[in-house]
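agent> Task received from the user: take the single chain below, predict its 3D structure, and emit structure tokens. No templates, no multimer pairing.
agent> Plan: (1) validate residues, (2) run structure prediction, (3) serialize to tokens, (4) report one or two observations.
agent> Step 1 OK, no nonstandard residues flagged.
tool_call: predict_structure(input=
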Amino acid sequence: MELQIALDRMELDDAVRLTERVVGRADRIEVGTSLVKRYGMSAVSEVVAASGDTPVLVDLKTADDLRTEFVLAADSGARAVTVLGQAPEETVRRGVEVAAELGLELLVDLLGVSERRRERLLGLLPEWVVLGAHLGKDAQGTGESVVDLLGDWVRGRRVAVAGGMTEEVVASLRRSGAASRAIVGSAITKAADPAEQASRMREVAG
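)
tool_result: status=success, residues=206
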């Protein structure tokens, strides 16, 4: 299972320094939505410059005007992007086309998506597209777990799991084989030693 480290809710300088510390300890670095909204595409280009050969995903959560946003991400050096599963179907379809055209990995964020909508997306999206099982920040701490979002639908799909990720959750996902990627944010970025914790998380992920 891959490890993706999400950088969110921090100063850009801190994000760059943290990236430099965890390079080689993660399969992907994520520039979170809050960084993009605060600093724009400069957040992406600066993290890309610090990430070496580690691919950078930019969490745009695109819902419209998809080509414009994906081109901005690609021009800034990102190698992966996200689109909201709740976006209009034409936007999601265009996401597949434009990502393939630009050589980008596409992650479709299933945040808040109904079971019916998810089934529709499963029939629409090719297998190379990553599906993001995502327990949102506002829902964390309510007793719900991101693991509760998983089920038989993950079989045969590339699934990234995000939201309230701890070592225990990552270990559980590894044992179950339910996910191909763990997206970990504050459990690493707020650790006393982020580099050491990233190494630990990667070991747990396998």
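agent> Step 4: summary for the user.
The longest helix spans residues 89-102.
agent> Done.
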